[in-house]
Amino acid sequence: MRMNIAAGRANPILAEAIAAALDVQLTPCTIEDFPDGEIQVSVDDTLRGNDVYLIQPTSPPASKHLLELLLLADACRRRGAVRLTAVVPYFGYARQDRRVHGKEAVGARLIADLLYTRFERILTVDLHNPAIEGFFSAHLEHLSAVPLLAQALRQSLSADSIIVAPDLGAVKLGQQYADLLDLPVAHIQKVRLSGRQVSARRVVGDVRNRSPVVIDDMISTGGTMVSAVEALLAHGCLPEITIAATHGLMVGDAAQRFAHLPLRKLIVTDTLVQPPRPSLPAETVSVSHMVAELIKVLSTP
Length: 301
Ligand code: R5P
Hints:
about 30% strand; 2 domains; binds ribose-5-phosphate; 5-stranded parallel sheet; Rossmann fold; alpha/beta
Protein backbone atom coordinates (compact mmCIF):
# COMPACT_ATOMS: atom_id res chain seq x y z
CA MET A 1 0.00 0.00 0.00
CA ARG A 2 1.37 3.45 -0.86
CA MET A 3 2.02 5.68 2.17
CA ASN A 4 1.03 9.34 2.53
CA ILE A 5 1.87 11.74 5.34
CA ALA A 6 -0.43 14.75 5.74
CA ALA A 7 -0.85 17.26 8.53
CA GLY A 8 -3.19 19.79 10.06
CA ARG A 9 -2.03 23.16 11.31
CA ALA A 10 -1.21 22.22 14.92
CA ASN A 11 2.47 21.39 14.41
CA PRO A 12 3.67 21.83 10.82
CA ILE A 13 7.32 21.84 11.92
CA LEU A 14 7.06 18.37 13.46
CA ALA A 15 5.06 17.14 10.45
CA GLU A 16 7.84 18.34 8.08
CA ALA A 17 10.48 16.69 10.27
CA ILE A 18 8.61 13.36 10.29
CA ALA A 19 8.12 13.51 6.51
CA ALA A 20 11.82 14.34 6.03
CA ALA A 21 12.83 11.42 8.26
CA LEU A 22 10.68 9.16 6.05
CA ASP A 23 12.05 10.79 2.91
CA VAL A 24 8.58 11.71 1.60
CA GLN A 25 6.83 14.99 0.81
CA LEU A 26 3.80 16.03 2.87
CA THR A 27 0.59 15.46 0.93
CA PRO A 28 -0.78 18.92 0.09
CA CYS A 29 -3.94 19.91 1.97
CA THR A 30 -5.78 23.22 2.03
CA ILE A 31 -7.23 24.35 5.34
CA GLU A 32 -9.26 27.51 5.63
CA ASP A 33 -10.99 29.34 8.48
CA PHE A 34 -14.33 30.76 7.43
CA PRO A 35 -15.54 34.09 8.85
CA ASP A 36 -18.18 32.25 10.92
CA GLY A 37 -15.52 30.13 12.63
CA GLU A 38 -16.04 26.97 10.60
CA ILE A 39 -13.03 25.17 9.16
CA GLN A 40 -12.93 23.80 5.64
CA VAL A 41 -10.30 21.28 4.63
CA SER A 42 -9.51 19.71 1.31
CA VAL A 43 -6.90 17.16 0.32
CA ASP A 44 -5.33 18.10 -2.96
CA ASP A 45 -3.98 14.71 -4.15
CA THR A 46 -5.86 11.50 -4.79
CA LEU A 47 -5.29 8.88 -2.08
CA ARG A 48 -7.01 5.95 -3.77
CA GLY A 49 -5.95 2.72 -2.07
CA ASN A 50 -3.38 4.45 0.18
CA ASP A 51 -2.22 4.15 3.79
CA VAL A 52 -2.46 7.65 5.26
CA TYR A 53 -0.89 9.10 8.43
CA LEU A 54 -2.37 12.40 9.65
CA ILE A 55 -0.11 14.35 11.99
CA GLN A 56 -1.92 16.61 14.40
CA PRO A 57 -1.33 17.04 18.15
CA THR A 58 -4.55 18.17 19.81
CA SER A 59 -2.69 21.06 21.38
CA PRO A 60 -4.34 24.37 22.35
CA PRO A 61 -6.83 25.26 20.99
CA ALA A 62 -7.55 21.56 21.52
CA SER A 63 -11.14 21.53 20.26
CA LYS A 64 -10.23 23.29 17.02
CA HIS A 65 -7.27 21.03 16.35
CA LEU A 66 -9.35 17.95 17.10
CA LEU A 67 -12.09 18.98 14.70
CA GLU A 68 -9.53 19.84 12.03
CA LEU A 69 -8.06 16.34 12.42
CA LEU A 70 -11.49 14.71 12.05
CA LEU A 71 -12.29 16.85 9.00
CA LEU A 72 -8.96 15.89 7.44
CA ALA A 73 -9.72 12.23 8.05
CA ASP A 74 -13.08 12.63 6.39
CA ALA A 75 -11.52 14.35 3.37
CA CYS A 76 -8.80 11.66 3.11
CA ARG A 77 -11.36 8.85 3.23
CA ARG A 78 -13.44 10.54 0.52
CA ARG A 79 -10.21 10.80 -1.54
CA GLY A 80 -9.86 7.02 -1.36
CA ALA A 81 -7.60 6.36 1.67
CA VAL A 82 -7.94 2.74 2.70
CA ARG A 83 -6.28 2.96 6.09
CA LEU A 84 -5.99 6.03 8.32
CA THR A 85 -3.72 6.52 11.30
CA ALA A 86 -4.09 9.55 13.57
CA VAL A 87 -0.63 10.63 14.72
CA VAL A 88 -1.47 12.66 17.81
CA PRO A 89 1.86 13.27 19.56
CA TYR A 90 0.10 15.26 22.28
CA PHE A 91 -3.34 13.93 23.23
CA GLY A 92 -5.40 16.85 24.56
CA TYR A 93 -8.19 16.29 27.10
CA ALA A 94 -6.10 13.48 28.64
CA ARG A 95 -6.36 15.09 32.06
CA GLN A 96 -10.13 14.54 31.94
CA ASP A 97 -9.62 10.87 32.69
CA ARG A 98 -12.04 10.48 35.60
CA ARG A 99 -14.97 12.11 37.35
CA VAL A 100 -13.32 13.88 40.29
CA HIS A 101 -16.66 15.15 41.67
CA GLY A 102 -18.86 12.47 40.11
CA LYS A 103 -20.55 14.91 37.73
CA GLU A 104 -18.04 15.77 35.00
CA ALA A 105 -17.67 14.35 31.49
CA VAL A 106 -14.77 11.95 30.95
CA GLY A 107 -13.27 13.90 28.05
CA ALA A 108 -10.33 11.56 27.39
CA ARG A 109 -12.65 8.61 26.74
CA LEU A 110 -14.95 10.67 24.53
CA ILE A 111 -12.08 11.94 22.37
CA ALA A 112 -10.61 8.43 21.99
CA ASP A 113 -14.04 7.15 20.89
CA LEU A 114 -14.47 10.05 18.45
CA LEU A 115 -11.10 9.37 16.82
CA TYR A 116 -11.98 5.71 16.24
CA THR A 117 -15.05 6.80 14.26
CA ARG A 118 -12.66 7.99 11.53
CA PHE A 119 -9.29 6.29 12.14
CA GLU A 120 -8.23 2.64 12.25
CA ARG A 121 -5.23 3.41 14.44
CA ILE A 122 -3.99 6.07 16.82
CA LEU A 123 -0.33 6.81 17.50
CA THR A 124 0.49 8.99 20.48
CA VAL A 125 3.34 9.94 22.81
CA ASP A 126 3.34 9.91 26.62
CA LEU A 127 -0.34 9.96 27.50
CA HIS A 128 -0.90 11.96 30.69
CA ASN A 129 -1.73 8.77 32.53
CA PRO A 130 -0.78 5.35 31.09
CA ALA A 131 -4.09 3.94 32.41
CA ILE A 132 -5.87 6.02 29.72
CA GLU A 133 -4.71 3.34 27.29
CA GLY A 134 -7.80 1.48 28.48
CA PHE A 135 -9.97 4.17 26.84
CA PHE A 136 -8.61 3.26 23.40
CA SER A 137 -10.81 0.43 22.25
CA ALA A 138 -8.92 -0.37 19.02
CA HIS A 139 -5.33 -0.23 17.75
CA LEU A 140 -3.21 2.18 19.82
CA GLU A 141 0.53 2.80 19.49
CA HIS A 142 1.83 4.54 22.60
CA LEU A 143 5.41 5.81 22.38
CA SER A 144 7.47 7.25 25.21
CA ALA A 145 9.81 10.22 24.91
CA VAL A 146 11.29 9.52 28.35
CA PRO A 147 14.44 7.75 27.01
CA LEU A 148 15.07 10.68 24.61
CA LEU A 149 14.62 13.23 27.40
CA ALA A 150 16.79 11.20 29.78
CA GLN A 151 19.52 11.15 27.14
CA ALA A 152 19.30 14.94 26.79
CA LEU A 153 19.31 15.37 30.57
CA ARG A 154 22.62 13.52 30.96
CA GLN A 155 24.55 16.62 29.84
CA SER A 156 23.11 18.80 32.60
CA LEU A 157 23.53 16.36 35.48
CA SER A 158 26.03 16.67 38.31
CA ALA A 159 27.10 14.37 41.13
CA ASP A 160 24.46 15.95 43.40
CA SER A 161 21.48 15.64 41.01
CA ILE A 162 18.21 14.20 42.24
CA ILE A 163 15.03 13.47 40.26
CA VAL A 164 11.91 15.11 41.68
CA ALA A 165 8.31 14.22 40.81
CA PRO A 166 6.29 17.42 41.34
CA ASP A 167 3.13 15.55 42.38
CA LEU A 168 1.98 12.06 43.32
CA GLY A 169 0.75 11.38 39.78
CA ALA A 170 4.32 11.75 38.51
CA VAL A 171 5.98 9.40 41.02
CA LYS A 172 6.16 6.41 38.63
CA LEU A 173 7.48 8.66 35.89
CA GLY A 174 10.08 9.99 38.33
CA GLN A 175 11.17 6.44 39.09
CA GLN A 176 11.53 5.77 35.35
CA TYR A 177 13.90 8.75 34.98
CA ALA A 178 15.76 7.79 38.15
CA ASP A 179 16.32 4.25 36.83
CA LEU A 180 17.49 5.47 33.43
CA LEU A 181 19.86 8.03 34.93
CA ASP A 182 20.85 6.09 38.03
CA LEU A 183 19.79 8.89 40.39
CA PRO A 184 17.86 9.05 43.66
CA VAL A 185 14.27 10.28 43.57
CA ALA A 186 12.13 12.57 45.73
CA HIS A 187 8.56 13.74 45.31
CA ILE A 188 6.26 16.55 46.28
CA GLN A 189 2.72 16.42 47.57
CA LYS A 190 0.80 19.01 45.60
CA VAL A 191 -2.69 20.42 46.00
CA ARG A 192 -4.33 22.16 43.05
CA LEU A 193 -6.03 25.41 44.12
CA SER A 194 -7.20 26.52 40.64
CA GLY A 195 -6.35 25.94 36.97
CA ARG A 196 -3.27 28.17 37.39
CA GLN A 197 -2.37 27.92 41.06
CA VAL A 198 -1.07 24.88 42.89
CA SER A 199 0.45 24.57 46.32
CA ALA A 200 3.28 22.21 47.24
CA ARG A 201 2.39 20.83 50.66
CA ARG A 202 5.35 18.55 51.43
CA VAL A 203 8.67 17.48 49.99
CA VAL A 204 9.29 13.77 50.51
CA GLY A 205 13.00 12.94 50.29
CA ASP A 206 16.18 14.80 51.16
CA VAL A 207 16.89 17.53 48.61
CA ARG A 208 19.27 19.61 50.77
CA ASN A 209 22.40 20.68 48.80
CA ARG A 210 21.22 18.76 45.77
CA SER A 211 20.48 19.90 42.21
CA PRO A 212 16.90 18.89 41.42
CA VAL A 213 15.76 17.61 38.05
CA VAL A 214 12.00 18.13 38.17
CA ILE A 215 10.19 15.95 35.65
CA ASP A 216 6.57 15.77 34.53
CA ASP A 217 4.54 14.57 31.57
CA MET A 218 3.50 18.12 30.67
CA ILE A 219 3.90 21.77 31.52
CA SER A 220 0.74 23.78 31.01
CA THR A 221 0.50 27.05 32.97
CA GLY A 222 3.75 26.24 34.72
CA GLY A 223 2.04 26.41 38.13
CA THR A 224 3.07 22.88 39.12
CA MET A 225 6.73 23.45 38.27
CA VAL A 226 6.90 26.91 39.88
CA SER A 227 5.44 25.68 43.17
CA ALA A 228 7.69 22.60 43.09
CA VAL A 229 10.79 24.74 42.58
CA GLU A 230 9.76 27.13 45.36
CA ALA A 231 9.22 24.20 47.76
CA LEU A 232 12.57 22.64 46.82
CA LEU A 233 14.41 25.93 47.40
CA ALA A 234 12.65 26.30 50.75
CA HIS A 235 13.95 22.82 51.63
CA GLY A 236 17.54 23.78 50.92
CA CYS A 237 18.21 22.50 47.41
CA LEU A 238 20.91 24.21 45.32
CA PRO A 239 19.71 27.04 43.03
CA GLU A 240 20.60 24.88 40.02
CA ILE A 241 17.33 23.43 38.84
CA THR A 242 16.53 21.47 35.70
CA ILE A 243 12.99 21.00 34.45
CA ALA A 244 11.98 18.38 31.89
CA ALA A 245 8.64 17.31 30.44
CA THR A 246 7.45 15.62 27.27
CA HIS A 247 4.77 18.17 26.37
CA GLY A 248 5.65 21.86 26.66
CA LEU A 249 2.27 23.56 26.32
CA MET A 250 3.61 26.62 28.15
CA VAL A 251 0.24 28.39 28.05
CA GLY A 252 -0.24 32.04 29.02
CA ASP A 253 2.69 33.52 30.88
CA ALA A 254 4.39 30.19 31.75
CA ALA A 255 7.67 31.29 30.14
CA GLN A 256 7.71 34.56 32.15
CA ARG A 257 6.98 32.64 35.36
CA PHE A 258 9.97 30.40 34.66
CA ALA A 259 12.24 33.37 33.91
CA HIS A 260 12.33 34.11 37.67
CA LEU A 261 13.52 30.62 38.62
CA PRO A 262 17.19 29.61 39.02
CA LEU A 263 17.12 27.25 36.04
CA ARG A 264 20.05 25.29 34.70
CA LYS A 265 17.97 23.88 31.87
CA LEU A 266 14.37 23.54 30.64
CA ILE A 267 13.94 20.56 28.31
CA VAL A 268 10.77 19.64 26.44
CA THR A 269 10.05 17.82 23.19
CA ASP A 270 8.56 19.11 19.95
CA THR A 271 5.21 17.31 20.31
CA LEU A 272 3.93 20.90 20.39
CA VAL A 273 5.43 23.86 18.53
CA GLN A 274 8.20 25.40 20.64
CA PRO A 275 8.85 29.07 19.86
CA PRO A 276 12.32 30.46 20.65
CA ARG A 277 12.59 31.34 24.37
CA PRO A 278 15.60 33.68 24.61
CA SER A 279 14.99 34.42 28.31
CA LEU A 280 15.25 30.73 29.28
CA PRO A 281 17.97 28.05 29.05
CA ALA A 282 15.56 26.06 26.88
CA GLU A 283 16.28 22.97 24.80
CA THR A 284 13.91 21.04 22.55
CA VAL A 285 14.32 17.34 21.86
CA SER A 286 12.67 16.05 18.70
CA VAL A 287 10.37 13.04 18.67
CA SER A 288 10.32 13.10 14.84
CA HIS A 289 12.72 10.18 14.28
CA MET A 290 11.05 8.02 16.90
CA VAL A 291 7.62 8.63 15.32
CA ALA A 292 8.98 8.14 11.78
CA GLU A 293 10.58 4.81 12.76
CA LEU A 294 7.24 3.55 14.05
CA ILE A 295 5.41 4.76 10.94
CA LYS A 296 7.93 2.80 8.86
CA VAL A 297 7.09 -0.34 10.81
CA LEU A 298 3.33 0.26 10.64
CA SER A 299 3.38 0.91 6.91
CA THR A 300 5.36 -2.23 6.11
CA PRO A 301 3.01 -4.91 4.79
C1 R5P B 1 -1.00 16.97 36.31
O1 R5P B 1 -1.46 15.95 36.75
C2 R5P B 1 0.03 17.00 35.20
O2 R5P B 1 0.87 15.89 35.25
C3 R5P B 1 0.83 18.27 35.28
O3 R5P B 1 1.51 18.30 36.52
C4 R5P B 1 -0.03 19.49 35.17
O4 R5P B 1 -1.04 19.28 34.24
C5 R5P B 1 0.77 20.69 34.78
O5 R5P B 1 -0.09 21.77 34.67
P1 R5P B 1 0.37 23.21 35.11
O6 R5P B 1 1.66 23.48 34.39
O7 R5P B 1 -0.74 24.10 34.67
O8 R5P B 1 0.52 23.19 36.60
